[in-house]
Amino acid sequence: MISLEDESSAKADAVDAPFRGVLAATFGPVAEALSAAGHALPAPTASDRSAWTAASASALVTRAEADRTTPWPQPLASAAARVHRDGDRSTWEQTAFARQHRLSRAVIAAAISLDDAWIDEVVDGVQLLCEQSSWCWPAHDDTFERHGSVLATVTDPYLDLGAGEVVGQLAWIDHVLGDQLDVRAPGIRSRIRHEARTRIFTPFLARRDWHWLGLDGDVRNWNPWIHGNVLVAALRLLDDPAEVDVRTEILSLVVEGLDRYVSVLPADGAIDEGYAYWWNGACRALEALDALSFATVGALDAREIGALRETVAFPHRSHLGGEWYLNLADGQARVSADQPWQALHRAALQIGDADAAAHAAAHRDVDPSEAAGLGRLVRALTDTAWVSASAAVSPLPRDVWLPSTQVLLAREQAGSAAGLTLAIKGGHNGEHHNHNDVGSFVVASDGVPVIIDAGRPTYTKATFGPGRYDIWTMQSSWHNVPEIAGTAQSAGTSSAAADATAMLTDAVSALSLDIAGAYPIERLRSWRRTATLDRGASAIRIDDAWDVDGAVSIRMLVAGDVVLIAGGALITPIAGASPLIVSWPDDISVQLAVRELDDPMLSDVWGTRLTRIELDASARRSVTVGVERDTATPGERASLRRVKR
User: Fold this and answer.
1) C-alpha distances in Å from residue 470, one per residue of 32, 173, 202, 437, 491
2) φ, ψ of residue 320 in degrees (nearest 5)
3) Could you read off the pLDDT of 251-297 as tens digits, one per residue?
4) Around 318, how many Cα atoms within 13 Å sit in the side-chain half-sphere?
5) 339-357: buried (b, 16+ CB within 10 Å) or exposed (e) per residue?
6) Do the strands 580-583 and 622-629 form a parallel or antiparallel pair, or are they unpaired?
7) What is the C-alpha to C-alpha distance for residues 490 and 519, in angstroms, rounded to an integer?
8) pTM of the shown model
9) Which residues are CB-contacts of 500 (< 8 A; sequence separation ≥ 6)?
C-alpha cells in the first residue's frame, strides 16, 4: 500500500503551488491495476441477493409505491427560462430533483424485489433522463453567454453539479441493475453510455476552462462534487475495451482535480462554507478517494493526508447540540437530518476517529434518504459496518479552535449542550459563499442558537451575481457586528480580521481580534473585539473597544421573543431552550428592528420573525455586552422593569 503522506514532502518541491500533485503522482503507477468496470464500484449488485434482501428500506419503498399513482415530474422549458426572466431557479430545479428522487426510490425497490414492474419503472426513469434536453441546472449553464440562448444548447452541454449528479446516478443504476436491465430492456444501457459520452466525458476532456477545476488556485466544493461523479461514471460506464485509454485519461484528470482540492484543504480540516457545505465538499472528496481506493484494490490510499484526517472531525466540531449547528456563510443552522451519515461513519472508521464515528452513529436511526443521491443511498443500505453500527452519542467537544478560518466554538462542559455555547469568527469577507461577517458571534442556549446567523434565503440568479450583497442576509448589517459611522463591512479578502488570538483554559475560552480592517473607513484606527465564555460565572462577555469618531451601533440578531428590561433584554429562545438575559450599560439607548420571514429557507429554521437589537454606543469608546442564563423564578421575572419597544 502506498502511503501518500510519506511522498508528499518529496514531491511538493517539484510541483508548483497550490497543486502538490501527491495523489496524481501516486495514481500513475497504479492506473493499470484498476478493476474492471463491473467490479469497480464499492457496493453489491442486485444479483447479490444476500445483500439486497437484507436491506432495510420499507419507508422508502412505500414512497416508491405511492409514486406509481402519479405522473413522472417533468421539468419544463418555461421554468428553465425563468432564470433569465425573473431570476427564479428553484421551480425547474425542484422538479428535476423530484424526478431523480423518484428514480432512486424505484432503483431500491427493484434491487430488493427484482420485480419486473419495478424494473420497468427504473427503465422509464432512465429513458426520461436520457431524453431530458440538459442535465445542467439552468442557473449554471453558460449557454446564454456562449450562444445567446435561454435554454440549453444540446450540442454544447455544460458540465455542472446537476450534470454530474445525473451521470453519477445513471452509473450507479447500471452497476446495481445492469444484468436486470439487459434482460428487461435490451439497449437501455447502451443509451446510458451514449448520453454519458456526449454530455459528460467528451466535454470533460474537450474543455479545461471549467471554473470548478480550480486552476487559478480558488478551489471550492464544486471540485470534488463533480469530479467524484465523473469518477464513478468513468469507472462503470467506460467498459468498452476500445475505451481503455479514454478511461485512464479521464481518471487521471479526475485524480489531478481531486488533488487540487486536497492541496488547498487547510491543515485543521475546516470548511469556510461551514457544516452544511462540508457534505458536498470535503465529504465528496472523501467518498471519491474511497472509491478510488476500492477500484485500485487499496493501492491508492489517501487516509494519511493530515487535512483529510482532520476534516472528518469538522461535522462534530461544528455541532451546537441536537439538530443545531454553527452555520457560516450560506449554511443553515438547522440542516435536514437526511445527510449521508454512512459516508462520515466509513471515513471515521478508516482513519480511526472515534468521536467522528460516534457523531455519525448518533444518527443511526435516521432512514437513508434518496435526497442525498443514489450512490450514497446504495452504500447506506449495503455497508455492513454502518448497518450494524450501534447508536452512539455525539461527542460535543468543550473547545474547538480552527485557526485557518479563525473560528472558535466553546461550551460550558464537554459532552453536554446544556447551558451556554459561544462561537465567534474572524476570517475575511472573500470566503466561499461569503457573508460580510468578520467578528460576528453566535450564542446558543442548551444547544439552540439565540443570538444567531440567519443563514441564507432561497437561491436565485441574484444570489451569485453582482447584486449578492443587496440581499439582507449577506450584509454585515444583519450579522452580529457593529455598524460604524453608518457604514457596513465591505466584501473581499482584504476585508479581514487582524491579530486574532485564542485563549483556551479550563476556566475561560476566548477569542480576541481587531476587525477594523473589514470596514472601508479611513478614520477607523482600531476595533478590538474579545468574546469570552467564563465557565466559572456561566456567562459570556462581548467586549468591544474602538478608536473612531462618529456613530456606533452594536448589533445582535436574535431568534425568539425579546422583551426589553432595564439595562438589557430577556430573550425566550425558540425550540424550548432556557431563557437568557442580555445586558449592556444603562446609559446606552436601544432600539429593536423586527424582520418578518416569508422565505421557507429562513422561516423553516427560525419561525416567522427575527429581531435585531441595536445599541447606540456613539458616546462611548468601549462597551461590554453580557449574556447569562435567566435564573429568575416566574414571579421574579414578572417584577422586572419592562421598557417599551
Assistant:
1) 52, 43, 39, 15, 12
2) -90, -40
3) 999 999 999 999 999 999 999 999 999 999 999 999 999 999 999 99
4) 31
5) bbbbbbbbbbbbbebebbb
6) antiparallel
7) 6
8) 0.94
9) 403, 406, 426, 511, 512, 513
